Amino acid sequence: MDTFLNDIKEIHIVEDAKRLLFGAFVSETDIVQRALDLASVAHKGQKRKSGEPYIIHPILVAAITALISGDEVMVASALLHDVVEDTHYELEDIERDFGVDVVHIVGGLTKIVEIRDEKLIPSVSGDRLINSALSFRKMLIASIKDVRVLVIKLCDRLHNMLTLDALSSAKQKRIAEETLVVYAPIAHRLGISRLKNELEDLSFYYIYPNDYAMIDTYIKSNKQNLQFRLNALIQKVENMMHIDGFHRDSFEIFGRVKHYYSIYLKMHRKGVSIEEVLDLLAIRIIVKEPIQCYRVLGLLHLGCTPLISRFKDYVALPKENGYQTIHTTLFDDDGIVESQIRTTEMHKLAEYGIAAHWKYKEGGSKVHLDWLEGLNYQNESVEEFYELAKSDLFSEDIAVFSPKADYYTLPKNSVALDFAYLIHSEIGETASSALINKKKSSLLTILKMEILSRL
């Protein structure tokens, strides 16, 4: 995806944008071509802040949408996403020419009325939270009936972030802040890690430029050594797998330096410098079958020294957004390396989340969307709505087990009373204490990975 995004940054001509859309990701289907024709006519003469023809923007948003989803209806909707809002065309025109499905998505996108650049509240303003909360609420409520609206909106925001150079530094920072607190958490909750990581790093670049530059300088100056460590570990794991009987064509191993914003968070959470961050590197092992994940896990733990406190099995206990991967952290000669083990299908879902449903036509999404319909904090103030929704969207999950071994997902730092309300509101209202791992406990006890029942 890095090469693809770099290509987008270099595109300033309409024909180049079209080639990127049609040449790499989508065939020239009738609906996509007609959407392109209408968008080209509707946006004729319009310019972006950079002075470029406006039509380049919807074409490149459609290209990102095609990369993420591979769905022609979503691509057509992305091409038309600004037509109703910014031109004389109405939703009735879209429905007449493209049908109910496209107009439904375009209508949802149109309802998300973004704050215009000239109306952006300064980042130092006390009204910033309310502004972000309003944007948050509009996006979620407009998307409850069709999550495709959210996916396209995330692609739209990614292209906006890639082209912020044309705006003033104050506007760049304000848009980046909104991206970090509104859009990245939604991408996280939808399981689209590709978009989440890109949105976070782009936001980080504009919000904390000095910290970004420091991390960038360190990573680039140590690139050769970091790559050497990755190559050595990958070769070691490959050799272990070959000796154990894995065929060379039956697995893949990738290595990477973690993305910059995640490094920044590690530094600040632990109060350390980048030189003291031990787990800058990660490897990902992709196999064919779920049972092979555990076979590889055994090899890694026998061949390396594992840090057991950081082991997580999301294969047996998937996250609520469908994410499945085994995480284990290993010591190597110069530090520690995070290792992820997953199957090819798990990898598709981890990279594309809900969009994998359309991209790979799996016949049924494994991503649960009950949380989206549950974000109906209509009786709360907008500030309370934002805090509740952000907590739901961007929290680390824990699994809590009932005595019958049913497991429930809760945000990190949830208490026993949260579990009671998760089971049923009446249970939460009447509960007086809890049994946690067969030990009587307060309802305000913070939960971890535990077996819990109500008293």
Which key features would you list for this structure?
455 residues, six-stranded mixed beta sheet, Beta Polymerase, domain 2, Ubiquitin-like (UB roll), Hypothetical protein af1432, globular, alpha+beta
Description:
- This protein has about 450 residues and is an alpha+beta fold.
- It has 3 domains: about 1-205, Hypothetical protein af1432 (Orthogonal Bundle); about 215-355, Beta Polymerase, domain 2 (2-Layer Sandwich), CATH 3.30.460.10; about 395-455, Beta-grasp domain (Ubiquitin-like (UB roll), Roll).
- The protein contains 22 helices and 11 strands.
- The strands form 3 sheets. Strands 1, 2, 3, 4, 5 and 6 form a 6-stranded mixed sheet that branches.
- Strand 7 (about 395-400) and strand 8 form a beta hairpin.
- Helix 3 (about 30-40) runs parallel beside helix 5 (about 70-80), helix 4 (about 55-70) crosses helix 10 and helix 10 (about 150-160) runs parallel beside helix 12.
